[in-house]
User: Fold this.
Amino acid sequence: MDDDPSATFATFFEQAEPRLRTALSGAFGAEVGRDAAADALAWAWQHRERLDGLDNPIGYLYRVGRSRALRDARRREEPCPADGMEDPREDPDPELTLLALLAELPEHQRVAVWMVHGLGYRHAEVGALLGCATATVATHVRRGLSRLRRQLEVETRV
Assistant:
């Protein structure tokens, strides 16, 4: 990020913000994800010289946002929207059922399933954002979907 720092950062912001917000929202919910993305990008502006040499600055900022979201969650200890449901499969609203079951997935599986199947991102894009290999994203998606199918008692098509 050389030349005019403001213009260069504005371009970076336009590329990074939607991806960060989407991934962090998938991991922590829309409100927390939005706040975590804003915190990560504020950190990026203050420490932009650190981002210059990174191969994957958006992946790095994902981890900054993730750390902030986890820290804030420990302070708040707010319940997940799915908390209080006795058995998510018994809810008559399929979207709430899926939301509750997604919330039970491990974070990397939840983010991978959300971004690949919910938002149409390619495995390589998710891998770049999360800082992991494309094959790792595929594994997270496969395991996450398998767990969701088991919980929903849906048979796998062969």
The chain has a mean pLDDT of 83. The chain is about 75% helix and 0% strand.
